[in-house]
Structures are given as structure tokens and as C-alpha cells.
Automatic annotation (TrEMBL):
Organism: Thiohalocapsa marina
Name of the molecule in the record: Uncharacterized protein
Recorded superkingdom: Bacteria
Transmembrane residue ranges: 29-53, 100-121, 133-162, 174-207, 219-239, 259-277, 284-300, 312-335, 371-391, 403-427
Keyword annotations: Membrane, Transmembrane, Transmembrane helix
Length: 524
């Protein structure tokens, strides 16, 4: 009886949450697999404290010490993602437990955005699921930041955009609009660009789709109003930090490996529209595939000086063969269950992201970690445009291959998160080992100058947030401190002030109280 009840519950969930009417079970299973793998990757990221990279460590320590959400630069909606950690801190959980909740609050955002996207498209246009998957599971992997309000907004706007494409005439869209836009509005100044993009695409759809012209013009007006409102808000309340960043540095500064992946996303978008029966398009796909193989070989075998070395070249060739065999195996299995022959489109479609992900992961061990790449915004816009074109083409015949490809992207995403976790644990172990003994409360980097902090991957954490990260990764109490300057350690011993950042000092009694007696009022 219990087994029968479990089966009924399983069928109820699958039929109502995931399975669109009349869809095949394999399509539902593939979409579910992509979402589950993304959630598993988020769990790995949270348990390994990946969201603590750079800004995340400062956010976490401030939240834990002061027991209030940190929403800098008027980005108030960011407090929602800190809510689990805040509840844990105020209810007396120890630092490691609050750290896990903090990580989950941010690391599960991709899975949430992907799930919401599937719920929007599952019934009428499941083939569109590939576009949010392409951004969330592929383009976004170039970023190491989890707490960036811009990156969060780019993911959460995708379900709303899909509802624009599919349900412009329904109340469902306006309900999604009313629930989503207030959250997006207070996340990041560049959300204005997202509103502008959605407004312009709505104008284009209004001109192309006569039946829904009125509705799309109304939607365009709504997004244009939001754009102007957000622009005005940003002009009034933009902080000095936000205006100090150069446009070129923010949008165009990145690594060659990241750039290769972003360009690969453009190639994937074009391949999705190509016809493998066309000789010209087949040649273009094979040419792009050859260029990708050459780029992969060079990027994964070059030393930090930029020269290709023989041992690295051999390792790169082995890795090239392995990733190609894996991607070809998945493409072959996809063609088998869909009863279609293995085409050049499938081969290039499954191989290209595999090469790009391999190149991306290789950089973390020797060439460094990039916090975030602002150029992802432009590729986000490209994906929105391609999704709108796809909506009018309605390429439903390619549905099985698309969902299999989304699941493959999720598997690659999981691999990237695992590699990031391995690198992060190496860095974290070195950091904990560098901390002073229990008898010494503080050491400074001016005096000690650890060698591992000047070499990759350790050099990636040698920035303003290092003191916060050193505290956040400790499970024991009282905390030991690794500060930037000798003056910081002097202030700690003489004035009992802890320099969390160049612009902020907090009383040491508060830090000790939070760690030793979590959940108390901690008043002096």
C-alpha cells in the first residue's frame, strides 16, 4: 500500500509539474535531468563554500556579525537570497551551518531560474527550453561570482521573457510581470539594460505578429516605463563605487578562455538554426569545429608565459580525444532514441560546448580566476534575440535533440562546479594552514608574505576580501585573523578593532561574541 501511494505521488508530481500534455516521457525526463543536475551542482557549490569568493565572504561575515542582510548600493532585493542565512544566524546556528545556508541561498538560483523557465515553456513550446539552458548552464560559467546582483538578475529575467514570447495576451504574463519586476528593479543598475532590451524586442514582435500587435505594444510600453524609471533611480542613487568602474574594464576585460567560451555560445546558437542537409552549412559547421579544436589545444597547453610546452601539449591532445569521445557518445545515444542518423549538426553541437568547458576549467590551475565577465550581458541579449526568432520558427521537430543537449549542458555545468570546488578547496586549505596558532591572534601579509598567495590559484583570493574569507572558512572559535597590513594587526591588539575591509572596521568583542555564543544579543 505504501509503495502504491509513493507511485501515485511520483506520477502526480511528474504529470503536473513537469510533463506537458501529450509529450513523450523521454522529453520530460531530459528536462527534469537538466534541472536536477543543476540543483546538485548548486549543492556542491554551497557545501564547498564557493559563494564566499571575493564579495561573498564580506557579505557573509557582515551578515553573521551584525545579523542583518547586506544590501549595498540600494540593491535591496539581494536580501532575499540572504534570508536563509539570516534566519540561521538569528536562531543561534553555528558559523559553519550559517555558511552553508548562505551558500545555498545563492547557489540554487540557477536551478530555480531553470525550473521556472521549464514551467513556462513545458506545455506549449518546450523546444524554447534550450535558450535559458544555454545562458544559465553555459554562458554563465565564465563567472566565478555567485553574489553578483547583475548575474542573478540575468538568470531570473529569463522565465519572464519566455512568458513574453508565449503568453502576451494572458493574465499569466501580467502576474509574472508584477511578481518579477519589483525584484529585478532593486537588484542592479544594469537591470535598466534588461528592461530596455525586452522593450525593444517587444516592439519587434509587435511589428512582426499582427494578431498580437496590441498586446506586444502594451508590453513594450510597460518595459520602457520600467527602463526610464530604473534609469532615473540609478542617476539619483548610483554610488561612487558604481560610477568609478570604467565601461571598457567592466564589459570587455576577461581571459582568453572565457572569451573562447562566449564565442562558442554564439556558434551554438547558430548551429541550432542550421540544416545539416545543406552542404554549405555542413562545411561551415565542420570549419567551426576545426577552429574550436585548435583553440582548445592551444589554450589548454600553453604555459603562463603563453608558450606551448611539450608535456602540456601531450596532455592537451589526450584531453581533446577524451572530450570528443564523450560528446560523440552522447550525440550517438541521442540519435538512437530519436531514430535519427548522427548528423554533423549533432556532432558539432555536443562537441563545441565540451571543448569550451574543458578550456574554461583548465585556466583555474595556472592562469587565474575571473570574478565576473561583464561581456556576458551582450551574449545574454544575443540569446534573447535568437529565442524570439526561434519562437516564430517553432522548430518542434528538433525537440528531443534540444532537450538532450540541455541535459548535456547541465552535466558540463556540474563538471565546471566540481572543478571550481577542487580549486577552491586547495586555496582554502592553504589559507587555513597560513593562519596563526591559537596563541597568536593575528598575522599580517606585509610581514609573512606567503608564497602561495603570489601564485595561481592562490593569487585569486589575494584581494581586499581576504580578511573576511579567512574568518568565514574557520570552524573553530575564537577566530584567528589574517590581515592585510601591520597597521591592521596593531589596531587589533591596541584598539580591539578588526579591519574587515579598507573602508570598514568592527569591534573585536562583537566578532568573538558571535562565534562563541551564536544567537545572543551581543551587546556591550
Amino acid at each position: 500500500m505504501a509503495m502504491f501511494s509513493k507511485l501515485r505521488f511520483h506520477n502526480l508530481i511528474c504529470n503536473n509539474l513537469f510533463a506537458p500534455d501529450g509529450s513523450s516521457r523521454i522529453n520530460t525526463w531530459l528536462a527534469s535531468l537538466a534541472i536536477i543536475l543543476t540543483a546538485v551542482a548548486g549543492g556542491i557549490a554551497a557545501t564547498n563554500s564557493l559563494p564566499l569568493f571575493q564579495d561573498g565572504a564580506y557579505y557573509f561575515i557582515k551578515l553573521y556579525y551584525f545579523q542583518e542582510p547586506l544590501t549595498p548600493h540600494f540593491r535591496h532585493a539581494a536580501g532575499l537570497f540572504q534570508l536563509p542565512a539570516l534566519l540561521g544566524a538569528t536562531h543561534g546556528l553555528a558559523l559553519p551551518d550559517v555558511r552553508l545556508l548562505f551558500g545555498l541561498g545563492y547557489a540554487l538560483v540557477p536551478a530555480l531560474a531553470l525550473l521556472l523557465s521549464w514551467l513556462v515553456v513545458r506545455r506549449d513550446s518546450p523546444e524554447l527550453f534550450i535558450w535559458p539552458a544555454l545562458y544559465i548552464l553555459f554562458v554563465n560559467t565564465v563567472n566565478f561570482s555567485w553574489v553578483s546582483e547583475l548575474l542573478i538578475s540575468l538568470q531570473l529575467v529569463l522565465p519572464l521573457y519566455l512568458s513574453v514570447l508565449l503568453y502576451p495576451c494572458s493574465r499569466k504574463f501580467w502576474l509574472a510581470f508584477l511578481f518579477t519586476t519589483p525584484l529585478l528593479f532593486t537588484l542592479h543598475p544594469l537591470v535598466a539594460g534588461e528592461f530596455f532590451t525586452l522593450g525593444m524586442i517587444s516592439v519587434g514582435l509587435a511589428l512582426l505578429r499582427k494578431i498580437e500587435r496590441k498586446q506586444y505594444f502594451q508590453i513594450s510600453l510597460a518595459f520602457t516605463t520600467l527602463f526610464l524609471g530604473k534609469l532615473g533611480w540609478s542617476l539619483l542613487y548610483t554610488s561612487r563605487y558604481e560610477t568609478s568602474q570604467s565601461v571598457s574594464g567592466y564589459f570587455f576585460k576577461t581571459s582568453p578562455e572565457n572569451l573562447f567560451l562566449l564565442l562558442a555560445s554564439s556558434g551554438i546558437g547558430l548551429i541550432l538554426f542550421m540544416d545539416s542537409n545543406s552542404a554549405l552549412q555542413r562545411r561551415l559547421m565542420w570549419a567551426g569545429f576545426a577552429v574550436a579544436c585548435a583553440a582548445f589545444w592551444y589554450l589548454t597547453t600553453k604555459s603562463s608565459s603563453g608558450h606551448v610546452v611539450i608535456p602540456g601539449a601531450i596532455a592537451g591532445m589526450i584531453a581533446l580525444v577524451v572530450v570528443l569521445l564523450l560528446s560523440l557518445l552522447i550525440a550517438f545515444l541521442t540519435s538512437r532514441y530519436s531514430q535519427m542518423r548522427l548528423s554533423s549538426q549533432q556532432i558539432t553541437l555536443f562537441s563545441l560546448p565540451t571543448l569550451a568547458i574543458g578550456s574554461l576549467a583548465s585556466q583555474y590551475f595556472e592562469h587565474g580566476i575571473v570574478l565576473k565577465t561583464g561581456a556576458t550581458f551582450f551574449f545574454f541579449v544575443m540569446i534573447l534575440v535568437l529565442a524570439a526568432i526561434d519562437r516564430m520558427k517553432r522548430a518542434r521537430a528538433l525537440l528531443p535533440q534540444r532537450l538532450a543537449f540541455a541535459a548535456w549542458l547541465a552535466a558540463l555545468y556540474l563538471v565546471v562546479i566540481f572543478v571550481k570546488a577542487v580549486v577552491w578547496n586547495i586555496v582554502g586549505a592553504n589559507l587555513i594552514a597560513s593562519l596563526p596558532s591559537q596563541n597568536d591572534t593575528c598575522i599580517d601579509l606585509e610581514t609573512t608574505r606567503p608564497q602561495w598567495l603570489s601564485e595561481y590559484p592562490g593569487a585569486a583570493i589575494n584581494n581586499w576580501s581576504l580578511p573576511s574569507l579567512a574568518i568565514a572558512l574557520q570552524d573553530s572559535s575564537p577566530p584567528r585573523y589574517l590581515l592585510k597590513t601591520t597597521e591592521d594587526c596593531k589596531l587589533l591588539s591596541e584598539n580591539s578593532e578588526l579591519a574587515l575591509a579598507p573602508w570598514e572596521r568592527i569591534p573585536v568583542w562583537l566578532a568573538n561574541c558571535r562565534v562563541e555564543t551564536p544567537g545572543t544579543s551581543c551587546r556591550q
